[in-house]
């Protein structure tokens, strides 16, 4: 099965209530990226394969990006993707990490990705300004949204790097999930004593 068929099938599964024309425009934009289109409105528009002129394709991508209904459906789309990717997994391994989005370090992305055979598949992500980066409230809201997306009986293993501290691990434990975290520097750990 080629990539276009997989994309078409996945989009139809995760966007069942999306308007048909909006779904077709989204498919065309994603297909444009798959074909090497740059991640800009003009780059995507220029790389859409269609009989319409370049100007019309750029306008099509512009309308898609500014479509308020599409933005309202993002949560539903993420839930559909989470169900599709992690729905059958009892203990999915999910990587959570922060990334810089721009050179000025004004915007940051927090992403939860499912570990799947040597690659990661995005389950959910959010963009935050610097003053919200790595804050307990931001983490709590993010993890609660992630929890709502996963099946009720799912007990994921959250993998995070050394940038996450004790409040993060307490949050993960409060969700009755497991975690693996990397430590560095002067971080102290203590082994839990086992009853013998």
Say how many strands there are. Answer: 5
End-to-end gap = 55 Å
Largest sheet: 5 strands, mixed
Described by the principal axes of the CA atoms, the overall outline is elongated
Structural class: alpha/beta
Structurally, the number of domains stands at 2
Mean pLDDT: 87
Q: What is the radius of gyration computed over CA atoms, rounded to a whole number of angstroms?
A: 20 Å
Strand content: 15-25%
Share of helix, binned: 40-55%
Sheet with the most strands: spatial strand order? 3-2-1-4-5
Task: Report the CATH C-level class of the largest domain.
Answer: Alpha Beta
CATH architecture designation of the largest domain = 2-Layer Sandwich
Examine the coordinates and then state which fold CATH places here, giving the name of the CATH topology of the largest domain. Answer: Nucleotidyltransferase, domain 5
Treating each run of at least 4 consecutive H or I residues as one helix, how many helices? 8
- Would you identify the regions where 5 or more consecutive residues have pLDDT less than 50? none
Along the chain, the helix and strand elements come as HHHHHHEEEHEHE
- CATH homologous superfamily of the largest domain - what is it? Ribonuclease H-like superfamily/Ribonuclease H
Organism: Vibrio halioticoli NBRC 102217
Protein name: Transposase IS4-like domain-containing protein
InterPro entries: IS4-like_transpos, RNaseH-like_sf
């Amino acid at each position: 099965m080629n990539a276009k068929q997989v994309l078409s099938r996945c989009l139809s599964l995760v966007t069942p209530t999306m308007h048909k024309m909006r779904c077709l425009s989204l498919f065309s934009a994603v297909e444009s990226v798959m074909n090497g289109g740059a991640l800009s409105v003009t780059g995507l528009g220029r790389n859409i394969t269609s009989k319409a002129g370049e100007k019309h394709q750029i306008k099509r991508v512009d309308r898609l990006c500014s479509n308020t209904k599409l933005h309202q459906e993002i949560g539903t789309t993420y839930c559909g993707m989470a169900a599709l990717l992690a729905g059958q997994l009892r203990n999915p391994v999910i990587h959570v990490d922060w990334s810089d989005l721009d050179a000025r370090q004004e915007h940051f992305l927090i992403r939860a990705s499912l570990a799947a055979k040597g690659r990661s598949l995005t389950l959910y992500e959010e963009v935050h300004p610097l003053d919200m980066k790595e804050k307990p409230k931001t983490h709590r809201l993010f993890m609660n949204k992630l929890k709502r997306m996963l099946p009720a009986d799912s007990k994921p293993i959250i993998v995070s790097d050394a940038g996450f501290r004790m409040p993060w691990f307490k949050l993960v434990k409060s969700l009755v999930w497991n975690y693996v975290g990397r430590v560095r520097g002067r971080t102290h750990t203590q082994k839990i004593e086992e009853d013998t």
